[in-house]
Amino acid sequence: MPRFKLTIEYDGTDYVGWQRQANGPSIQGALEDAARAYCQIDALVQGAGRTDAGVHARGQVAHVDLTRDDHPDVVRNALNAHLKPRPISVISAEKVTEAFHARFSANERGYRYLILNRRAPPALDARQVWWVAAPLNVEAMHEAAQVLVGRHDFTTFRAVQCQADSPVKTLDALDVTRDGEMIAVTTRARSFLHHQVRNFVGTLRLVGEGRWTAADVAAALAARDRSAGGPTAPSTGLCLMHVGYPDAS
Amino acid sequence: MPRFKLTIEYDGTDYVGWQRQANGPSIQGALEDAARAYCQIDALVQGAGRTDAGVHARGQVAHVDLTRDDHPDVVRNALNAHLKPRPISVISAEKVTEAFHARFSANERGYRYLILNRRAPPALDARQVWWVAAPLNVEAMHEAAQVLVGRHDFTTFRAVQCQADSPVKTLDALDVTRDGEMIAVTTRARSFLHHQVRNFVGTLRLVGEGRWTAADVAAALAARDRSAGGPTAPSTGLCLMHVGYPDAS
Which residues of A touch B (CB under 8 A)? Predict the structure, then answer.
């Protein structure tokens, strides 16, 4: 059975998350239904990142083994035809070897979190941003974010229900930039703990408001205690932007 | 009665357009309802640009006379509270004199039209782009667009039902740029004819596909005949970005 690597964009607002669950529609479930309609098989679509309910993606990666050995562009078009009218789109499909595993081969994940920072609520971008009305100091947020970069025990920023074996991770980048009213928090790591990015953003908001300093963030990190960190930012602003692999596969 | 200038953002997808109409919800109607709920008056909200059904705005401007002389930030917040949960947001309110008229004082309108140019359909940006799967030559589109800049009889690009007195207008700018998969057509003029931007975009698409040349666009313009122009691009990609006034009012 030929294996295909899929790069996927989706609006997660109305989904229970990536993972197939009994309590509502999932991205994985929609893709598996599309693969079944295309190939008449019970396909397993394995994703690189199990995004939560309401979280979006512009560069989620998954793999699937299909019974039809069509050209990758035909695979992409067929899956998209069966995904209609859902807000899920297979941007590209590539044929890969059985050695490729979307989740276990990945060595980098990149996320972006958008904050709309203005007095008026969002209209056009409501589904893709967290609205924060109070003015935020982006320079202070970026400076405090650098405290978190590197290899640390991230227990403070890990959801209580996180199933990862270890809270120790290496954070490669955490940047806070502003473009007009829009603030972007972009981050890269080999992998992330459950709610890690949203807990970073909820904490950095406190810095942006002037209620916390970079030293407070460092103390929270050192506490290794979820209750020492800031609140979890809402899912709506978060987007999985890319998944990296060691070679071109 | 104090007059307020409002700058407004909206997602026009589910609206019949700016103008109050009997056949469905309008942006103007929603704003007038919000003003009525706030001030208990039958307010008339006058907009600078009467955007069509499905067209968006990030910088529509309107004026309204209110009975309450609150601080402009209070006006903005009160209107937004009454607009909830509609995808319409008053970005700012300013007190202006009675000499200010949102439509008649305006001396510039700026629009942006977004084309998502890739094989896969849009997921996250579906409500704000026109999806064109065939690769478009942006340089050729931009070059052909320059034929339209300046003072011309734009009958070829004017909807048959257009109510403007004259088809002669001065187009100040029409630029076509690409950022990855996203193509932006941005344009500025004192005023536009009905469907003018969408007819420009539908015609420039023919150039981007290599079916038309800049000379074909010039010939179409010279024909002064709507049937000589390209098709009307869909409303979904169009957004009113700003309205300019001669002074700070």
Answer: 9-11, 56, 58, 73, 76-77, 80, 84, 87-92, 118-124, 126, 128, 239
